[in-house]
Design a protein that fits this description.
- By secondary structure, this protein is mainly α.
- It folds into 2 domains: 14-42 and 117-179, no CATH class; 47-112.
- It has helices at 17-21, 30-36, 47-72, 78-112, 120-131, 164-177; strands at 14-16, 134-136, 141-143, 159-160.
- It is elongated.
- Bound molecules: zinc ion (ZN).
- Residues 5, 7-8, 136, 138-139 line the site of zinc ion.
Length: 190
């Protein structure tokens, strides 16, 4: 498949952005790559929740130690060890719940700040749009040919590399609002 550049109207120097990024014959410099590469996945966990999950993991180890101590313990120590085990299990549970709450709060904060994408599902949309993008090496523009994302998708104007990431997010966001890609493109609506 070829696509004509909306700026210079030729197909000589146009190719998919994904192909251009992986083209060993014409390697891309780092700043350009940064402008064109797929945006990173939103972090599944916040730093605060990571610490809490790590602590939960450590407490989990102490639960295992308690269990193994109980296996070799004398009868009279059992009650004490069982009590200790319950306390440690409670600590693990509390840390996991706290981690989850902190994570949810971080996501909410990001949403309130207008951040997008914040979920993996939203990022998948961005990724789909990114995969449909073309560029023209002669004009240094990115564009979406007619029907690139779905049959009724209008051809985009030529976009400077610098505006590509914003445009990606905005297009994906609108696609999310419109209920996903139409099945006609072979991409099922989520
Ligand atoms: Zn061009």
């Amino acid at each position: 498949m070829t696509a004509a550049c909306p700026s210079c109207s030729t197909t000589d120097r146009t190719l998919l952005v994904t192909a251009a990024l992986n083209d060993p014959r014409e390697e891309m410099d780092r700043p350009t790559r940064r402008l064109l590469d797929v945006p990173r996945e939103p972090k599944a966990v916040s730093p605060g929740s990571t610490v809490l999950y790590a602590l939960a993991g450590l407490s989990g180890l102490s639960v295992i130690r308690s269990l193994s101590a109980m296996q070799h313990a004398a009868q009279e120590d059992m009650a004490y060890l069982a009590g200790e085990l319950v306390v440690r299990l409670l600590v693990v549970t509390a840390l996991l719940v706290a981690g989850r709450l902190v994570q949810r709060a971080a996501r909410k904060r990001l949403l309130a700040q207008g951040g997008w994408p914040v979920s993996y599902e939203q990022w998948t949309l961005v990724h789909k749009v990114w995969r449909a993008a073309w560029l023209c090496r002669a004009c240094r523009v990115v564009f979406f040919p007619l029907g690139a994302l779905r049959p009724d998708f209008p051809a985009s104007p030529p976009l400077r590399y610098e505006h590509f990431q914003d445009w990606l997010n905005e297009t994906a966001r609108q696609t999310e609002l419109a209920g996903g890609f139409l099945p006609a493109t072979g991409t099922p609506a989520p």
